[in-house]
Design a protein that fits this description.
With 328 residues, chain A is α/β, with parallel strands linked by helices. Chain A has twelve helices and twelve strands. Chain A has helices at residues 50-57, 84-90, 102-105, 112-123, 128-141, 147-150, 160-172, 190-207, 218-224, 242-247, 252-259, 299-303; strands at 8-19, 22-34, 39-43, 66-74, 77-78, 95-98, 178-182, 210-214, 227-232, 235-241, 309-311, 314-316. Chain B has a domain at 91-270: Orthogonal Bundle (MetI-like fold), CATH 1.10.3720.10. Chain B has helices at 2-29, 33-38, 44-54, 60-72, 86-121, 126-140, 143-157, 182-215, 218-225, 230-259, 262-267, 273-282, 286-314; strands at 170-172, 175-177. Classes of the chains: A alpha/beta (328), B mainly alpha (327). Chain A: This is Peptide/nickel transport system ATP-binding protein.
């Protein structure tokens, strides 16, 4: 873990969805930090709360979802309780976002140049001519050939991979210090995925931008992230350096998740799989949310919920690592 | 661009030709113009002379060809009822109808679009609920009832506005306008609201539905994530994406407003083409009716062309054949 003062701190974040049948807790007691320039990978099954965490950080939770508890701090300043207009000035300028599907993230009726320029003139003290010049620069930087000509093209005139490059340029053009990338490569062809990840990694390193990389692609995580957080049913179950989590996961769920990655160097008869499915938000079991599926479950897991605790090289929310727990 | 317009005009020709055929058939087979024009007492010689003069002794296709050639030159013959050239009658009445129609459409757009945006953005505010309830009234009340109610309130009870007619008009060339006099403007208010109310509520509901749809899209979320101000997100990014269906409907509705201003013109005794048409129907004045039919067809065809051009302007994806290199 980096020793620098954290850029982003998420403390005990709780997100709730009020529904007719009562309140659903989508995120519960989520805490983590991201240091300047650090890449934190966030993994987990669909519905585990990965994207929700990203949406909460950029202040764009879908109503009626709301932050019901905890704090989000950027550079030590609370940003979870800001008014819409104050948060708007942070979005794009301090925290950039990259969405999943480049085919739908760009406004089809405006040229890419215009969309880049309007983002920059909104946040930076520059005029339209300078914004246009920088827009061309950004398109070159993200590897769009003949940027000066393509700047007046509309999104539909680009391929999916090229559009995601434009989206990356849009997310970075006001030079934010943090990028929340929500499954940035999921919608792309496999051959394009590697290029886009390499680009994102290179730009983040060059600009010193920290990144929260939400994905369910372990390959992307292993290649890009410095640390990994594994989420399950709205909570972080394990967090630690990428090598440790991928190679020696401590939490039984992370271990199961990592074991289900097919190894490239040998053939296996059957891929490891985790039996059962993640519980719905309305039916999260008492105790540890993973206990019905856990191969190492014991009595305490069914009664009491574990917090993150030190587990060798990572931190895991599992009673297996509680020195004071009697396992019988 | 030019080729596009040309192709659309070529496509419009068969439409106009078909309408001409129908209106000519009406001319030729509904009623007996000779009997109407001659009155009750006439000799066979007088009748034969008039038939020859009108060309009614010619075969159908010859008559039709003559009709088309004349119509293309704006020549529709004499009105049976008023014994004046039809073209002249229509030219006299058209400004009244067009001014009324465009004012009504203007009100519908200028009020309906912002109301639609508002109700789309603030779905649950009490003002949105009020607008939606009000729009139900606008959609469901028949035009003549709205007109009569407005007359009752603003002309009879309050006495603020005139209940009928066009007020004083100013002649500019062939065009008579009511826009330049106070009484002309006052006379325009009630009929324009009556005519535009239905379109207003329709536009409001359409814009609202489209806004709700567009606001859910990823590019709007992304525009917010880029920190663009709300004004830009709502009126720049979202509203522009609702425009294609709105343009389609406004175009069709504008045609409908011009063509079917009849009820409003009757209620307010507005001296426009609709009133002329109703009076012509009453008198079986076929030249006026067929000319009106052709004119309305022309209006619809023209509006459709303009609508197509506006699509082209709004949505770059529809600009085919403008390829800028591949992917």
């Amino acid at each position: 873990m980096s020793n620098a003062a954290p850029l982003l701190q998420v403390r005990n974040l709780r997100v709730e969805f009020p529904t007719r049948r009562g309140t659903l807790v989508a995120l519960d007691d989520v805490s983590f930090e991201i240091a300047p320039g650090e890449v934190l990978g966030v993994v987990g099954e669909s519905g585990a709360g990965k994207s929700m965490t990203g949406a909460a950080i950029i202040g764009l939770l879908e109503p009626p979802g709301r932050i019901a508890g905890g704090q989000i701090l950027l550079d030590g300043r609370r940003i979870d309780n800001l008014r819409y207009e104050e948060m708007r000035r942070i979005r794009g300028k301090e925290i950039g976002a990259i969405f999943q599907d480049p085919l739908t993230t760009l406004n089809p009726l405006y040229t890419v140049g215009r969309q880049l320029a309007e983002t920059m003139t909104t946040h930076l003290p520059i005029g339209p001519a300078e914004a246009r010049r920088r827009a061309i620069e950004w398109l070159e930087l993200v590897g769009i050939p003949a940027a000066a000509q393509r700047i007046d093209s509309y999104p539909h005139e680009f391929s999916g991979g090229m559009r995601q490059r434009v989206v990356i340029a849009l997310a970075l053009c006001a030079e934010p210090r943090l990028i929340v990338a929500d499954e940035p490569t999921t919608a792309l062809d496999v051959s394009i995925q590697a290029q886009v990840i390499a680009l994102l990694k290179r730009l983040a390193r060059e600009k010193g931008t920290a990144m929260m990389l939400v994905t369910h692609d372990m390959g992307v995580i292993a290649e890009t992230a410095d640390r990994v957080a594994v989420m399950y049913a709205g909570r972080i179950v394990e967090i630690g350096p990428v090598r440790e989590v991928v190679k020696h996961a401590n939490h039984p769920y992370s271990a199961g998740l990592m074991a289900s990655i097919p190894p490239l160097d040998r053939r296996v008869e059957r891929l490891a799989q985790i039996d059962g499915a993640m519980p719905r938000l309305s039916a999260i079991p008492e105790g540890c949310a993973y206990n019905p599926r856990c191969p190492q479950v014991f009595e305490k897991c069914r009664r009491q919920r574990p917090e993150l605790m030190d587990a060798a090289t990572t931190r895991a929310a599992c009673w297996l690592f509680d020195t004071e727990t009697d396992r019988e | 661009m030019f080729a596009f317009i040309l192709s659309r005009i070529l496509q419009a020709l068969p439409v106009m030709f078909t309408v001409a055929l129908i209106s000519f058939a009406m001319f030729a087979y509904v009623g007996d113009p000779v009997a109407i024009m001659l009155g009750q007492d006439y000799t066979q010689a007088q009748r034969d002379a008039l038939v020859a003069e009108l060309g009614l002794d010619q075969p159908f296709w010859v008559q039709f060809a003559t009709f088309v050639v004349n119509a293309a030159q704006g020549e529709f013959g004499l009105s049976y009822r008023l014994s004046r050239p039809v073209a002249e009658l229509i030219a006299e009445r058209a400004p009244a109808t067009l001014e009324l129609a465009f004012t009504a459409a203007g009100i519908a757009l200028l009020v309906g679009v912002p109301m639609g945006v508002y109700t789309g953005l603030y779905r649950n505010s009490w003002l949105s609920r009020f607008f939606l309830t009000f729009s139900l009234v606008g959609v469901s009340l028949p035009t003549f009832l709205i007109g009569i109610l407005l007359i009752l309130v603003f002309a009879v009870w309050l006495g603020w506005l005139p209940s009928f007619g066009r007020g004083d008009t100013v002649r500019i060339g062939f065009w008579t306008t009511g826009f330049l006099t106070v009484s002309g403007l006052k006379a325009l208010i009630l009929p324009a609201i009556t005519l535009g109310l239905f379109q207003l509520t329709l536009i409001m509901r359409l814009v609202r539905a489209e806004m709700l749809e567009v606001l859910r899209t990823d590019y709007i979320k992304f525009a917010r994530a880029r920190g663009l101000p709300n004004r830009v997100v709502h009126f720049g990014h979202a509203l522009k994406n609702t425009l294609v269906p709105v343009i389609t409907m406004v175009g069709l509705q504008l045609g409908a407003i011009i063509a079917f201003a009849i009820v409003t013109e009757t209620v307010f005794q507005w001296p426009g083409m609709g009133l002329l048409f109703i009076q012509s129907v009453g008198a079986a004045d076929i030249p006026v009716m067929s000319a009106y039919l052709l004119l309305i067809a022309l209006v619809f065809v023209t509006i459709n062309l303009i609508v197509d051009l506006l699509y082209y302007a709004v949505d770059p994806r529809l600009r085919i054949g403008r390829g800028k290199g591949g992917h």
